[in-house]
Amino acid sequence: METHGLTKAFGRQKAVDDVDLTVPRGTVFGFLGPNGSGKTTTIRMLLGLASASSGDIRLLDGDMPKDARAVLPRVGALVEGPAIYPFLSGRANLQRFDAADRHTSPATRDKRVDAALERVGLSHAARKRAHAYSLGMKQRLGIANALLAPRDLLILDEPTNGLDPQGTREVRNLIRSLSDDGTTVFVSSHLLAEVEQMCTRIAIMSAGRLVAQGTLDELRAEGTAHVRVTTPDHSDAHRVLTGLGLTPERHGRDDVLTAELSVPGLLPESVNAALVHADVRVRGFEASGASLEDRFVALTGEGFDVAG
Ligand SMILES: Nc1ncnc2c1ncn2[C@@H]1O[C@H](COP(=O)(O)OP(=O)(O)OP(=O)(O)O)[C@@H](O)[C@H]1O
To answer: What is the similarity comment for this entry (predicted)?
Structure first.
């Protein structure tokens, strides 16, 4: 799957702005970004649920939306939670979903439904009414719906959103096992930890723009270490850090300074020693490595929910 210059404007706001995604076949691809960064809008365009203002979408071996009829039957999707009928059983829900798809044959419906239930580990609860399902089970039922036909690509929008740790684990394991079967999985999330555990490649959205894309290792390698100093002596600390060749920035609070360790060979402990030597009252000192988390915070700004 690929997009080029994909853009969606709502009035003057560009919810998705010139996005070039490259999702290689067979990967579990994480589409990461804070709430409101444009993930759902992008996914809706990929699936032909919304039109693009400009740009191209290549989905499997077709162009969207032109080839929607040919390619969409090979794409399973879960967007914004499944619309489940609460008073029907899990199986009856899937039978309805299957019946609503005009590409399916009624003769093989039961077989397809049972296979999908089995695939997501819901066979034992097939007869239970869906309102008695846990959130994780509901979400797996939604994924079962996406799996009613053989799929080459699965597009899942925040499949673990709102789930408890157990439900999250269930869905995460399911996604991994789907990819073991050779299906390409494109999964969005606002949680870095989530994506790190499931995905091999990721793309990061921030305010409608794609700000990074690559394998986890590639993105880790692009990060730089930082120091973070908490001190009431803000201007003295600023002077010392600048003297060391760093570019300190005030970070949210008045008493916190952060700086990228951009000087080769300069170690965090030397920075701390220099501050203490200059009588700066250091209340907190933190050195962070080139972790993905740092990189994401740097790329997407503050307020990005990295831990959950
Ligand atoms: N139909 C619409 N009309 C106007 N603005 C919209 C519409 N849909 C989305 N937006 C705006 O586009 C931006 C991106 O929204 P989008 O839902 O794609 O983000 P997201 O990354 O999926 O976030 P979330 O995780 O909250 O769904 C937001 O600012 C949103 O308010």
So the answer is: Belongs to the ABC transporter superfamily.
